[in-house]
Amino acid sequence: MNVLVINCGSSSLKFAVFDLEKKACILKGMAEPLLGGSATLLWETENGKQSVKLPENADLESALKVVAEKLLSVLDLGAVGHRVVHGGEKFKSSILITEEVVDQIEACNNLAPLHNPANLLGIQVAQSIFSDIPHIAVFDTAFHQSIPQEAYLYPLPFEFYEELGIRRYGFHGTSHHYIFKQAAIRLDKPESETAIISAHLGNGCSATAAEAGKSLDTTMGLTPLEGLVMGTRCGDIDPSIHGFLQREKGLRLKEIDTILNKESGLLGLSGISNDMRTLGEQAEAGNPKAQLAIDVFVFRLAKAIASLRISLSHCDAIVFTGGIGENGAAIRKAVLERLHCFGCLVNGAANVIHGKESNGLITTENSALKAFVIPTNEELMIAQETEHVLK
Ligand code: ADP
User: Fold this and answer.
1) What whole-number distance in Å separates Cα of residue 334 and Cα of residue 337?
2) Which of 62, 135, 143, 303 has a CB 3.0–4.6 Å from the CB of 173, allowing a cystine?
3) What pLDDT score does 102 carry?
4) 202 and 82, same structural domain?
5) For position 109, which CATH number holds?
6) φ, ψ at 249 (rounded to 5°)
């Protein structure tokens, strides 16, 4: 079966088609910037990359119509899988989209005001274009719904949780779930006996402790701002910094929110860039601010991994994924060296080539804890989840 995977943002449409018998991506592309002037549609097949300009001010509907007519009309699609960022407490797994499900996703809009409305629009537009095949929603939060209450509750007045749903939800769930399954295969263990800590390190970063196919704790919270140092997001900070900034600098809440989400993290610390590759190059060239940003990133990541360990009965491996996790050999080495208390021994040669000749393994044979590099594939996971729901 061919499954179309759709990921709609506020200004972009990403799509991919998977042939699930062959587990192969046969078409992948994106259209952006939507509603922002002259958008371009880019796509890639086995024949290479191509692009066309979309009409001026193209919106999601017109972009998806072009994709459907130009690229999808020759493919026999069996279903559509939609990435949905927030499923609240309602959605613990992927689900066939009905009118009721659309209403329930809409009810989660306040938890992800930038993402869920765009995801919903994508569902509605796609349902009108591909009206005779099933549509499935796959949630970023669903994998983390197994996290126990002591790990997901904030120590705030309990009615905030009951009335407003203020709790830790976690994100990147599709990626962490995919990585868990891949790790079990590489460890040659049944999923029921596998326990890992996965670090998804891209522009957004999160780490998750998962055992027997279930997430038991993760670093992101009510929003994707909590947890690790990220490209422009601060991660964990003392919550009274809000009040301090307001008193000392006269900043308003909205301005503080922007600083913490868009001007902090690697960018804020370094004053140079939010891009880890750039910071690595600058640090190599002797820039102390770039090195400082990397050091804080590494320290906090290692600390988070150590604290995630307590949720697991045992730990088979630490797994690195995402742009930084898959490509940043120096970052992985520094994090694993920080985790010396777990007896991690990095295999320098394997790490430099991202474990490419050792099934992803980057630790030595006598390391007390294994570490792997495993490329994530959220689109494939959404396609597989779509098939799973249909079965
Ligand atoms: P997104 O979360 O937007 O999908 P990616 O997973 O592509 O992002 O990750 C982007 C991050 O990966 C950037 O910080 C980028 O610098 C980093 N990255 C890519 N290549 C390397 C590399 N060779 N070394 C270190 N970091 C890298």
Assistant:
1) 5
2) 143
3) 97
4) no
5) 3.30.420.40
6) -115, 0
- Per-residue pLDDT tens digits for 107-128: 999 999 889 999 999 999 999 9
Q: Which residues of 104-115 are buried (b: 16+ CB within 10 A; e: fewer)?
A: bbeebbebbeeb
Ligand 1: which of 201, 324, 332, 374 to mutate, judged by most atoms within 8 Å of the beta carbon? 324
pLDDT number for residue 74: 87
Secondary structure string (H, E, C) spanning 235-265 = CCCCCCHHHHHHHHHCCCHHHHHHHHHHCCH
pLDDT digits (tens, 9 = 90+) for 18-29: 999 998 999 999
| pTM, 2 dp | 0.96
Q: What is the DSSP letter of 55?
A: P
Which structural domain, as residue segments, surrounds residue 197? Answer: 190-378
Picking from 176, 126, 116, 94, the residue whose alpha carbon sits closest to that of residue 6 is: 126
Cα 21 to chain centroid distance, Å, stands at 25
HSE-CB at 343 with a 13 A cutoff on CA atoms is: 9
**198 and 346 share one domain:** yes
Distance 50 CA to ligand 1 centre (A): 24
